[in-house]
Amino acid sequence: MSTSQQPDPRDRPARLTVGVVGAGRVGTALAASLQLAGHRPVAASGVSDASRRRAADLLPHVPLVPPAEVLGRADLVLLTVPDDALPGLVAGLAETGAVRPGQLLAHTSGRYGAKVLDPALRAGALPLALHPAMTFTGTPVDVQRLAGCSFGVTAPDELRLAAEALVIEMGGEPEWIAEENRPLYHAALALGANHLVTLVAQSLELLRTAGVGAPDRMLGPLLGAALDNALRSGDAALTGPVARGDAGTVAAHVRELREHAPATVDGYLALARATADRALASGLLKPELAEDLLGVLANGGAHGLHNPHGSHGPHDPHAAHGSQGADVPDGTGGTEGTGGTEGTGGAECTDGTDGTDRTDGTDGTEGDGR
């Protein structure tokens, strides 16, 4: 049996020098992952204490320098700043002459595609949009989580192979997103991942108020099973009182929430309406049971069950379905969270937002799932 060991990636010749503009949660994790693949991080920018700690933990011995100097040292530059800061950063770097011809410039924003890098493109840079659909913690575990993580990728056709190679080297899976679809793609991830955190946090608080001693232990198996079911079956995984048409139960929920957690009522009602719409459309919720349910939701549960044949006149569940749907923005896949079936994008995918450096625009990377 051979006892030879695999070569350490650090012993391989580095193929690219890597710089990070914005040593936030995402930038440091991606640079550390590229280092494992044989590339060499050489510089990073970041001014907050959090940035310096992250750089020290994940990128030891990599100097922290101003953004323009990062570009001066690196073949591949990761622009990992908040979405709203990205256009101004790119324009500023291009105007000051920091961008070099042939330099790979990759941002990690979910919202933007490659066109946001047009000022750098005109200066000769090679633009890439590489958005990891994962949530980031700012710890070494983030590097491990990149294994199998999908990346929303947008790049010119001639850079497609380069973009795919970088994603694969970081352990990810490239998913090509058209330039014009980037905002919708990012909204989908935010709806699933960011709103999931809000829903779970609210649920934990309510369970504590109800006297549950270990709400995380109670929710963990439920939400895990619901998420798995939702990813496998979509709307068919919907359960709970809304999908069943239990109007009395929903009315009782609203009354209790108004008493104990009034800040959650509007969100509960909006999600319940959207869930009812999806349950009706998929055939899970019977139209004859939907009448009272939609009546409760229409009046906010404040007056108990709606009488479809009383003073309000006839109530058409299909008409109510359409009107209630207008109250909730499209893309209500995230509404399944009330039944525990909220899908995760990671997060912003999408979200690893660190607001500590938002003043200088060099931190707070939108990762999410981002």
How would you describe the overall organization of this protein?
This protein starts with 16 loop residues before the first strand and ends in a 45-residue tail after the last helix. The chain has a seven-stranded mixed beta sheet. Helix 5 (118-122) links the parallel strand 4 (104-107) and strand 5 (126-132). The protein is elongated. The protein is built from 14 helices and seven strands. Helix 1 packs parallel to helix 2 (49-58) and helix 12 (265-282) crosses helix 14 (317-325). It is α/β, with parallel strands linked by helices. The longest helix has 28 residues, at 182-209.
Overall form: elongated
Q: SSE order, as H and E?
A: EHEHHEHEHEHEHEHHHHHHH
Instruction: Tell me the span between the first and last alpha carbons.
Output: 46 Å
In oligomeric terms, what are we looking at? Answer: single chain
What are the segments in which pLDDT stays under 50 over at least 5 consecutive residues? 1-14, 303-370
Count all strands and give the number.
Answer: 7
| Helicity level | 40-55%
Main β sheet profile: 7 strands, mixed
- The overall pLDDT average reads 83
The total of helices stands at: 14
- Please state how the strands of the largest beta sheet are arranged side by side: 2-1-3-4-5-6-7
Structural class: alpha/beta
Radius of gyration over alpha carbons?
24 Å
| Fraction in beta strands | 5-15%
